[in-house]
Design a protein that fits this description.
alpha/beta, Rossmann fold, Rubrerythrin, domain 2, 5-stranded parallel sheet, 3-stranded antiparallel sheet, elongated, binds zinc ion
Length: 201
């Protein structure tokens, strides 16, 4: 019996240690939610993960159930609502401009991408949750992990073709400042072939 008690004591001790370390882990794991995630009814029972979003996203939520969920999460501290810092916003705006994405991304899109970038810079294990193709494409270009609500781990991604309306040259990669290097015309783009690839976990 004595041995059993000792083992139990050890087990409890171990459990406490595990809890303490998973508390530290939970501070590091983060999901950033964009408007589409809330519209699709994002929900979670995972207490190990902290949720983040921006005030601009909250301003776009019209669904009553989503609003109630958000209010509860804010009260319990599960959801943190914050704007990304200026440096991260600037970084995203600049990258989007060079990619020719600045106009397809809304201010809200920029804010969630910037917040994801900022949290990743702070060393958090961050994944952006979005069903918006433009946001997913931009996250992919920036090397930020992301996942969709509907795609169950597999998603289709457009390979954009950047083309010049002036000299008709096509580019499979974005060009500097989104300008044709041959004739200086602003490039346009169209979806090319679809590629199927695994989403980040
Ligand atoms: Zn050209």
């Amino acid at each position: 019996m004595h041995t059993v008690h000792s083992v139990q004591a050890l087990l409890f001790e171990d459990t406490e240690k595990t809890d303490a370390s998973s508390d530290k882990l939970s501070e590091l794991r983060a999901l950033v939610l964009d408007t589409s995630a809330f519209i699709q009814g994002f929900d979670t029972n995972d207490n190990e993960t902290k949720l983040y979003t921006t005030p601009l996203v909250l301003g776009e939520i019209r669904d009553e159930f989503a609003k109630i969920r958000v209010t509860n999460w804010e009260h319990t501290g599960k959801l943190v609502v914050q704007m990304p810092n200026d440096a991260s916003l600037k970084y995203i705006f600049e990258r989007a401009r060079r990619m020719g994405e600045a106009r397809t991304l809304s201010e809200t899109d920029h804010s969630v991408l910037a917040l994801t970038h900022q949290l990743a810079e702070e060393g958090k294990q961050t994944t952006l949750v979005s069903d918006d193709y433009s946001v997913q494409n931009m996250a992919d270009e920036l090397g930020l992990p992301y996942k969709g609500m509907n795609t169950r781990g597999i998603k289709r991604r457009f390979q954009w073709i950047h083309y010049c309306p002036g000299c008709r040259k096509q580019y499979d990669k974005p060009q500097q400042d989104n300008i044709c290097p041959i004739c200086g015309t602003e490039l346009k783009r169209k979806p090319g072939k679809k590629t199927t690839r695994r989403a980040e976990e």
